[in-house]
């Protein structure tokens, strides 16, 4: 999402944030209802095109939202009404914005309960735990399996082990992937959680466990480089002989021995 759509999403988030702050733990319910709106838009091409058509008056589209979604929480109806009044580069961007607000709502509920950091950590740990479980990953994404069955599998795997917000995100990622793999959605929401804590995420891969002193030093270096505190998600990969691989958003810093050897081979071959 870029340009006009991104600006519209930013404005919608600013409007919705006070609502989420006031909602507290109810935010998770608002999130679930927003996800239901996403499903409705995904399933109705005519509704999707109408609500994203810039040629149609914004108030008229908001009236249609009130008519179609009248049974939902008024706070959800107001949020979606605000979205359809804005300008979007495509209908897909509008749907993505509704989904984004849904994840915001779930994370806000965790924040209200003092569990946002826990949720962020659990989302990361779930993605790492699935690295070697190909069959489970496929089952959570298999389009031949109904969405509710995939959501049930996610719940069976995680019920009683994670925070309610984490479970809600996992269920949603399995039930409605919207073109993303299960772990990709969890990674996306983990980044949203980090942003809500006003911290970026640095994914660090090391050949061995890092000591707390090393973690603190690395965190300080990255904070100086990016101008803000970063959440360090560290993964140990024994295949790495030495050095670190650090990814922050689209930035990748690979100082591992293997990377240097690969670079040397490329230079020799050129």
UniProtKB/TrEMBL annotation:
Keywords associated with the record: ATP synthesis, Cell membrane, CF(1), Hydrogen ion transport, Ion transport, Membrane, Transport
GO CC field: plasma membrane; proton-transporting ATP synthase complex
The keyword Transport appears for this protein: yes
Primary location group: membrane
Subcellular location: Cell membrane; Membrane
Signal peptide region: none
GO molecular function, one term: proton-transporting ATP synthase activity, rotational mechanism
Membrane topology: Peripheral membrane protein
Summary of the function given for this chain in its UniProt record: F(1)F(0) ATP synthase produces ATP from ADP in the presence of a proton or sodium gradient. F-type ATPases consist of two structural domains, F(1) containing the extramembraneous catalytic core and F(0) containing the membrane proton channel, linked together by a central stalk and a peripheral stalk. During catalysis, ATP synthesis in the catalytic domain of F(1) is coupled via a rotary mechanism of the central stalk subunits to proton translocation. This protein is part of the stalk that links CF(0) to CF(1). It either transmits conformational changes from CF(0) to CF(1) or is implicated in proton conduction.
Family from the record: Belongs to the ATPase delta chain family.
HAMAP family assigned: ATP_synth_delta_bact
Protein's name according to its UniProt entry: ATP synthase subunit delta
